[in-house]
Amino acid sequence: EWTDGLGSTLIRNAVADTAPDKKWVVFDGPVDAIWIENMNTVLDDNKKLCLNSGEIISMQGLMNMIFEVADLAVASPATVSRCGMVYVQPDLLGWRPVMTSWLSTLPAGVTNAHKACITSLFDWLVPPALRVATKMLRQPQAMQDINLVVSLMRLLTAHLDDFADPASEALRELSDAQQAAWLQCLFLFALVWSVGGCTDDEGRRTFDRHLRKLLANQADELACYITGEYVKVTTPFPEGKLVYDFMFDKARLKWLPWMDTLEAAPLDPEAEYSSIIVPTVDTVRYTYLLDKFVQHGQHVLFVGPTGTGKTVYVKTHLLNGLPDQYTSMFINFSAQTSANMTQDIIDGKLDKRRRGVYGPPAGKKMVVFVDDLNMPQIEEYGAQPPIELLRQFMDHGGWYDRKELTFRQLADIQFVAAMGPPGGGRNAVTNRYLRHYSLVSVTQFDAENLGVIFSALVDWWLRRHAYGPSVAKLKPAIVSATLDVYAAAGAELLPTPQKSHYTFNLRDVSKVFQGVTKAGGGVEDGLAMVRLWTHEVLRVFYDRLVCDEDRTWLGRRVVELAEAHFKEKPDRVLGLKSPGDDDVLIGSLRDLMFGDFMVPGTDAASRAYVDIRDPARLYAVVAEYLSDFNATSKKPMNLVIFQFALEHVCRICRVITSPGGNALLVGLGGSGRQSLTRLAAFMEEYELFQIEISKTYGKAEWQDDLRRVLRTAGEANKPVVFLFADTQIKEESFVEDISNLLNTYEVPNLLAAGDLVPIFENIGGRAKQAGMDGSKEALYSFFVSEVRRNLHVVLSFSPVGDAFRDRLRKFPSLVNCTTIDWFTAWPQDALLTVAKSFLANLSGMDAAVVGQLPGMCVLFHQGVQKLSARYLSEQRRHYYVTPTSYLELLLSYKTLLTKRQAEVSTIKSRYEVGLEKLATTESSVSAMQQELIELQPQLEVAAKETDAAMVVITHESAEADKVKQVVSKEEASASAEAAKVKAIKDECESDLAEAMPMLEAALSALNTLTKNDITEVKGMKSPPAGVKLVLEAVCIMRGIKPVRMKDPNSGKMVDDYWEASKKMLMESEFLDSLRNFDKDHIPAATVTKIKVYVDNPEFMPEKIKSVSSAAYGLCCWVRAMEAYDRVAKVVEPKRKKLGEAESELEVVMSALAAKQAELKVVMDKLAALDADLQEKKAKKDKLEHDVHMCSVKLARAEKLIAGLGGEKTRWTASAAALGEQFVQLTGDVLLAAAQIAYLGPFTAVYRADAIGSWVTSCQQQGVPCSPHFRLESVLGDPVKIRQWNIWGLPKDEFSAENGIIVDQGRRWPLCIDPQGLANKWVRAMEKSSGLIVVKLTDANYLRTLENAIQFGKPVLMENVMEVLDASLEPLLQKQTFKQGGATCIKLGDTTVEYSDDFRFYITTKLRNPHYAPEL
């Protein structure tokens, strides 16, 4: 979609303006060949701007264009011919008109006499000084004459504050002569630091010599350049030092050495090493110049080599040395810095003051410090966009808003910049921009200054820990020896394209002393101090070296310097027994290790940085840390601990425990950089953070991760290691941000205002304790300092290819702000240790052979390294031999050996079993014939015995049947009798069943009665009629007679049961007598009397219950007794009849039992006879079966011997051959594993050479192997290979080997397949398994991969180029882990279950690809 740019907008606005004024559109800046070509239609006579949108803007006649450019290097003739050319030659203008204009701007206190004096000084000294500066000196950054003179004017103006008020006291106290002298000295000072301030150390000496001659009126060869009269200088520079070593003291009217202006003060013993600045001549004079320029609103540029303190001087002064109205911001330029990025960084720090005007908060002035100013890459047409943007501000006071396309005026902003000399990745900056700066060249420290600086630092450390004289006396030696190592390294170890990181500066020297101070107060004596110093020098200078020649040279130099400065012999310092042996020297240097982790569990403050002299204990401690890590980590590491790993773990721990310590680990993939970093972070109890690359991972996700790690370090106050690998660089802007992190510990515009609010809330308390005020600037500064203290960046880069060298060139911070640890190829001892560890538990082979295997593995690995070098030189094909390939060899060997031994053992066992069966068959034929002869007589005897037994059992069976018939008749009559008895019994029981429930209910009712109930009835004076009725019935049942009494109504004598009842109730056993009443013998008279009561309607239990519960129970009892008696009279005759019937049944059953006993005797006899018969039959059947089987076996054996007699010889030979093959598997499988691990990328000729030499080595070392080794013979399956051929694999041996490598390799195959043969073969082979084909260019290929991994489908990724997507790395390395009991893998930001059936194939059509070692 078309959007208007700035040019079209400005031109359209100008066209729309109807005012009759002339309108100019000025293009100020370098010409770009593309856009200037598009302006041709505007520059033609028709003056039309043709836009890509199709719009055509016709310019008015009053409109014109001006192009202001530095040169026409990229302008086409078509453009040049359309414009009128005006070349402005600076030499013709000269500096005098500028000076004349400048004089009119001087303060009011500068009189005409003063101006005349200044003019005479300009005319006298400036022309010869310019000649010296531009033609006789080396300028690190070339400046034009007029720029130098303007710088002189600026610096002189900055010193004329006293002349602002003509009536000032300072001026009144001076005479005219003194004022003239004052101006002379200030002019000379400004001349030295402007015209003479743009050169290096040697140039300063030259300028000093010529200036002193000029002041002494001895112009010599410069006389022809002097355009003014000689002026007698009242106060010339003192002798003995350079003119650069003095400043003019206006109060005393004399020159003073810089150091005399500073009050001496000891260093703060509680300060952190990294925050200490030792005052020197350089710190004083550069800070003074910086202060003058900044406070007078002038831009200043410091130019000097890396490590000369430019950044430190500027940052320290901007943060701590300026008045409160100044605020500052820092920008680090790199090769990737863009104009947009620069604009966003600065705009992000500015507030809107009014419409179109932006600046720092009101009342403030902002100083923007741009470090590495000349680092931005020069674009195709020669411009540096960030530089041009800053120049736009300096020329025009602002820049355009990219969205609104309106001009943003920037107020109260000035720039301070620093940069290294152009060259080596640093570019020349256009003079159109540099003219705005006053340039100050920062020179390298001289030996005297360096001695002062580092002697002060060592003295600070010694005093802080109160060291005794045995260590303190070594201070001069430590300083001088370190500086000698630095000088020697800088002179001998020069950078080359392969060693582009061989750049040493004072940061490295400082790291040595910082490392020494890590020991705190733990250095015991002079020897320990020398070992500590040697160790720190090695870590800083030695660890970055790439080859053994450089390491040997530096090692010898360090040993010599230790002996020269410390007077310690090498054997005492390093234990060198053979000082002349290079290998012994390298080994001794490797053995020198320090660390603070030897006591696990110690808190950070208590850890001691000590000399580790016990390798066994170091091994045990690190192994314990590794075990703890694996026990707690979701991604355990299967590491083998050996000296090489221990060395690098110690180095990484040393770096990350140093304040501001960052590491650059350089090595091939698989060398252990990331694993050892994880282990080191765990050992130091630091959090480790690493980004997770996915297909959609971009700038936004990267910035989210950066915010997370910065907040962890700064807000949460947790020590964190940020591990970042070059395989994770999806955009080069990532490296730009890493560079900023290393330099300033912040990433510009990363944290928005909304992000900072919660951060400030959380760190406010800590900041207050640290003495900070609550302002946003102070809190942000505290946050950055916390990040600096807690964050340690560890970069894991590969040195292969141009990318590493290019990044070091584009981003100098990668070298300057890190400690480099170069991971060399694994040394022989490391390879041996790993092989012994992996091959320790091999079984089924001779111990002597097992002892030779690790050495053979090392031999193969080193042999392939030489072969790959030859392959590169002869075929120009790249192949990297990495530790990953070595581990692949070891793991493949163990896996394949176990598999092949099992296969060969199984086949051999089958042959041996067959031979054994043949031998057994031959020996058993005669035995079977003899057995058959012996069995025939036994069979005849058994037949006769069986027949006789049959006759006896037939007779006995007939007798038994007769007895059985008699018993059956007796059983039938007994059964009939029993049925009759049962019928009578059932009838009795059914009649009883009628009365029994009533009886049980009556007894239950009685059981509910208590003595209290009886007492209640007994106590009734006039009981109810129902109660009396019940008690009368009870008395009748129990046979209790009534009492004769006179009836009060009639006067007659009547029977009264109440009195009798009361007596009855008074019986103690009354209730028990009822329960135990003899119900079976109730007299008939009693029953007759009771019958009257039972039939009485008033005697119903329900009615009685309503009167008395006690009477209810007694009523139920009476009725139950009557019912029982009634039923019993019916049942009794039946009972008698039942008794008679049972007696008869017993007689019948007795007779039946006797008959059954007789039958049992007969049947037992018959069963015994039958059992005997069955036994004889079984014996006969067994003999018949044995005879049959013996005959069958005999027949089969005769057939087997006849058929396989000729195979015996072949089987015997095959078994013997397999036995020999089993022995040779030890070497054959080793050769096969080596071919799979290493030789896949090589052509057939190189493979044959390697295999031939390996077979010879195996034979020499006594490792059994086939004399003519072929991979197809060892691991090939003829049936499978034939099927591969059908699927499209070529039929030659080389292709068969490739197929076996693809099939048997543990790693995923990457096939170099320019003809598409492998692609065709894989497609056919995996078609039945549901092969999925993807390309890296597919939009959703990662989603496809995730599904295939989860469901176990094969995937073919075709047509890959030399770089694969970083998000595939976990899959390529098979980084699986257990989660919830399932095997999982993390692909990008998604975790998926990993199926063991998943297979992954990669093909490329490139004929000679150059892949990274990690791949």
Explain the overall architecture.
With 1415 residues, this protein is of the alpha/beta class. It is built from 51 helices and 31 strands. Helix 19 runs parallel beside helix 21 (526-542), helix 21 packs antiparallel against helix 22 and helix 36 runs antiparallel to helix 43 (1109-1204).
Q: In summary, what is this structure?
A:
The chain is α/β, with parallel strands linked by helices. Strand 5 (246-249) and strand 6 form a beta hairpin.
Write down the Rg. 57 Å
The major sheet is characterized as: 5 strands, parallel
Helix content: 55-70%
Poorly predicted parts? none
Find the structural class using helix and strand composition: alpha/beta
- The fraction of residues assigned to DSSP E strands is 5-15%
Main-sheet strand order equals 8-11-14-7-15
The tally of strands reads 31
Average pLDDT: 84
N-to-C CA distance: 40 Å
- The oligomerization state is single chain
